[in-house]
Structures are given as C-alpha cells and as structure tokens.
C-alpha cells in the first residue's frame, strides 16, 4: 500500500497530478491511498488512478499505531474521527507531497519507506533539499526523480466530468480567494464582467458559499441577473464540469485557474503576492495568459504586492489579455 499526503486545496491537488500519476505508474500493483480533505473527493475521482481517499483535514499524529523504542505509543491512536481510521499496519511506502516541515514528516512516521524532502528536524535525512523558488509542479516531480520515479510535468489534464446541470459555453469570472492579498478589487471584476457581457459573453460569477456576498456584489455591479451568481451553488465536481465546458475563465491565483489549466480552457489569471513562475500555468500554452500585480507580465521581476500595484492593473489590460487568449483558439 502506498500512502500519499497532500492535505491542502484545489490548486495544490491539481499541481500534484503529474506526481500522483507517476506514483500510480511506479507502483502499478499497489493500492494508492491519498490523504486529503474529504471535500476534494470529486476532484480526486477526476485525477484517476487513486484507489482510496483517506479524509485528512490537517496535520496530526500518524493514523496508524506507532510505538517508541520502549514500546509506548507516543501519540494517541487511532484518531477520534472514525472515517480516518487506518485499516491495518503502516503502509509500505509513504510519500510526503504536502511540504517540507517536521509536522508532515512526523505524520508519516512508521511507514516502511518515506519518500520526502530532507528534513533532519522531522527525523528524515534522506531525500533532496527543498528549493523555495521552484514551480510547484516541478517541486514534486523532482522529489520523485530523486527516488527513481519519473514524472511528466506536462501531465496536468483531469478527466472531463459529466456536464450535469451546469451551463456550457459560459465565461467564468471568479473574484474570490482565501488569501485577501490575491484578490483583484471587486469593482474591477464587476467592470470586467460588464464589458465581457457587452461583448456577448454569457458571464457567470463563481465562488465558495463564503464568497456569495462578494460574487453578488460583482454581478450586481456588472448588471448581471441573480441567476449569474453561482457562488455556493456548485459542489467541486460541478465547478470542474463548469470550467471544463467554459468559453473563458478569469480568476486570481486560486484553484479555478488550475482547473482551467487542467482542461485547457482559455484563461486570464491575475497574480498578486506569489510570482506566476511558482504557481502559474505552463508558459508554452498561449491560451493561458498571466498578469502579475507587480506590474510585470509572466516572467517579470518580483515586487511587493500592494493595493497600489493591484490598482496598476486596469480592466483594459485584462480585456486585452482576454483577446490574446481567445485569439489563440481561433487561429
């Protein structure tokens, strides 16, 4: 059994797809278990090759009994949540695709073999060193390569979900982000949505249930009907289906942008604090356009993300990027 830890969000899972596929190919006869939040389940199904999801919302003790040298269990096991109980002995191989710190390493203690970055504080002196400036996709591919497992960094596609009840051919505007500094101003998103609608785009505004108010403010400012607000009205599988069948996606540096990359949908992604060289789409895909709040386009020099830098990214520049992205599809 192979256990992979990636207890994070949508973009984190999407950028780990090449590594997960490489593990599937490298251990074809083993059960592949992913420790990740339960709400990611619909997206895990779209990755393919993962046999089971172990619901994991945070880092904690290993989900299996681990005993110290004197025979005493150093952590209370099993965990109180019965859905996360481990069914037997520790896995033969545990893979840390979560991070570099001691907590994630210690959570996998007791596995027959640990595939992870070097972390002496976590008791793991094997593996390559961490690089802060590395693209997230390349980071995990390099980790596996160190252990002799070859991953294809371009293998980012997700399975296409059934369309279900979501509309097709819409332009998705996603103004939210869990990180406030990553948000282009709501009034700019509203102006953009209005201009897109004037051009004949069928615009919908997406987000989580907690972003309903923000999405409504954007839609109202754009003069869109209430039905255009899909924030809180789609689960993750439906959101993936919406993006997969979309005409266009405009979002910040967040999970929806990674879904656009996975489904090769024309997109314009607005980056704030984090340089796109670390989390952006592949640079050889011209239908994904990236604008950075540092005032530079993809590949530009870094800068401190501030409100004034966001203000320097006007609606007209984003619309021009929309034209550039859509033009590559028409050619």
Can you give a write-up of this model?
There is one protein chain. It is built from twelve helices and ten strands. It is elongated, with a radius of gyration of 21 Å. Residues 69-83 and 295-305 have low confidence and may be disordered. It has helices at residues 10-15, 17-26, 41-47, 102-107, 136-146, 186-198, 212-222, 236-244, 255-262, 276-279, 307-311, 315-330, and strands spanning 2-5, 32-36, 52-55, 93-96, 113-115, 171-174, 203-205, 248-252, 267-271, 288-292. Helix 2 (17-26) runs parallel beside helix 5, helix 6 packs across helix 7 and helix 8 (236-244) packs across helix 9. The protein starts with a strand and ends with a helix. Strand 4 (93-96), helix 4 and strand 5 (113-115) form a beta-alpha-beta unit. It is of the alpha/beta class and 331 residues long. It has a five-stranded parallel beta sheet with strand order 3-2-1-4-5, with helices on one face. Strands 7-6-8-9-10 form a five-stranded parallel beta sheet, with helices on both faces.
**Could you spell the SSE succession in H and E letters?**
EHHEHEEHEHEHEHHEHEHEHH
Going across the biggest sheet, name each strand in turn.
3-2-1-4-5
So how many helices?
12
The number of distinct β-strands equals: 10
Q: What class, by secondary structure content?
A: alpha/beta
| Shape verdict | elongated
Uncertain stretches of 5 or more adjacent residues = 69-83, 295-305
């Amino acid at each position: 059994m192979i256990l992979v830890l990636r207890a994070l969000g949508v973009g984190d899972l999407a950028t780990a797809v090449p590594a997960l596929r490489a593990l599937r190919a490298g251990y074809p006869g083993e059960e592949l278990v992913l420790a990740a939040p339960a709400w990611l389940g619909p997206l895990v199904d779209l990755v393919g090759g993962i046999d089971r999801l172990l619901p994991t919302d945070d880092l904690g003790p290993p989900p299996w009994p681990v005993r110290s040298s004197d025979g005493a269990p150093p952590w209370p096991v099993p965990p109180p949540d019965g859905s996360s109980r481990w069914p037997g002995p520790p896995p033969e191989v545990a893979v840390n695709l979560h991070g570099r710190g001691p907590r994630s390493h210690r959570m996998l203690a007791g596995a027959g073999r640990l595939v992870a970055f070097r972390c002496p504080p976590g008791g793991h002196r094997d593996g390559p060193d961490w690089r802060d400036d590395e693209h997230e996709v390349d980071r995990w591919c390099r980790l596996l390569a160190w252990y002799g497992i070859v991953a294809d960094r371009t293998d980012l596609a997700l399975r296409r979900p059934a369309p279900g009840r979501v509309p097709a051919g819409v332009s998705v505007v996603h103004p939210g982000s869990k990180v406030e500094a990553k948000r282009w101003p709501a009034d700019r998103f509203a102006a953009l949505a209005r201009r897109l609608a004037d051009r004949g785009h069928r615009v919908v505004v997406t987000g989580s249930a907690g972003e309903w108010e923000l999405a409504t403010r954007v839609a109202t400012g754009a003069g869109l009907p209430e039905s255009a607000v899909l924030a809180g009205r789609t689960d993750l599988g439906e959101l993936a289906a919406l993006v997969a069948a979309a005409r266009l996606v405009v979002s910040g540096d967040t999970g929806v942008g990674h879904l656009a990359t996975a489904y090769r949908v024309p997109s314009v992604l607005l980056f704030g604090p984090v340089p796109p060289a670390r989390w952006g789409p592949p640079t050889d895909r011209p239908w994904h356009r990236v604008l950075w709040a540092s005032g530079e386009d993809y590949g530009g020099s870094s800068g401190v993300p501030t409100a004034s830098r966001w203000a320097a990214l006007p609606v007209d520049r984003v619309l021009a990027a929309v034209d550039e992205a859509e033009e590559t599809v028409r050619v």
